[in-house]
Amino acid sequence: MKAPTWNDKLSTQIESMDAQHRQVFEYFAKLWNQLEAGASQEEVIRSIQEIVVLEANHCREEEALMKEHQFPGYHTHKREHQQLFMEMRREFIGPISRGEMKATAAVLKQIAKRLVDHIVNEDRKYGLYINSRQNVATPTK
Length: 141
Ligand SMILES: [Fe+2]
Ligand SMILES: [Fe+2]
Prior knowledge:
74% helix, binds fe (ii) ion
């Protein structure tokens, strides 16, 4: 099983946000290597927590960007972020940290998939909106 990677299909067309998304995938790659090297569950849990912190900071920056550009889907997107973290806690982080679930490559793949789905279904919307507004020519006097 290969580590999930960022690819052009995940681009929001907003460079700063793509850079943050790519960073999340770099963390996943690191976590993958750890697993393959036979890291302990404690180490793996620490790395998962790093990803969660990174993702939480990223979501805050995304929300600030959407607000700055008065993106109409801001509130829906913000709720989707809350939903994302709630699901992550309930389905993965909670059970893994309580030792009820093992952090295997298959489980990490599911976590990454949830993030990929969010980028594809939600993040690309603000990218389209911001870019379409920026491409509107400002009238010259
Ligand atoms: Fe995002
Ligand atoms: Fe988002």
